[in-house]
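Protein Record: Sequence and Backbone Structure Tokens
======================================================

Structure line: whole-number tokens from a learned vocabulary of local backbone shapes, matched to residues.

Purpose: to set a sequence beside its fold so the mapping can be learned.

___
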Amino acid sequence: MATAEQPPRLTIRPARREDAPALREIFNDAVEDGLATFDSTLRSIDEQKDLIAAAEEDSRRPLLVAEVRNWVCGVVSIEPHEQELHGGEVGEVTMFVRRSFRSYGIGRQLMCAAQTEAERLGYRKLVGRVLADNKESLQLCKATGWRVVGFHEQHARHGSRLRDVTLVEYLLPAVPRAE
């Protein structure tokens, strides 16, 4: 039981089909906010169910949710990044936190869970793209060991506006490769 001294416990677990409405709502809020995604199209419930199914079918594409008292409050995913070029060793991270749960450390815990999961799956590096004016996400990246490696000017289009993108990466502990 949660008390003033003992806050409710955050659980991070794989997404399930029944999470689709909550995950869609979190994503669509991010689209409407215009700070956390390049997407400008709202996601349908079927599209969200398809993403969950894809994660269930391919362990290299985890989709993890953060939950407090059975309330889904955030999501993080890892997708192979340029698989043909990097042989599946580089993953791209995407994360969204429900509006009412931002600034409570949910993002930090999701990021740490993604880093742990990526290491377990044998990724050697994680990459991400953050809208340059999203200071909170850039602070989160820095706080969890990510570093800025570059910028794309006028890269993401939101309506008629072009926005700059900051490129970030996180190097996972070296894993010995079989020769």
The CA atoms of residues 117 and 137 lie 20 Å apart. DSSP finds five helices and seven strands in the chain.
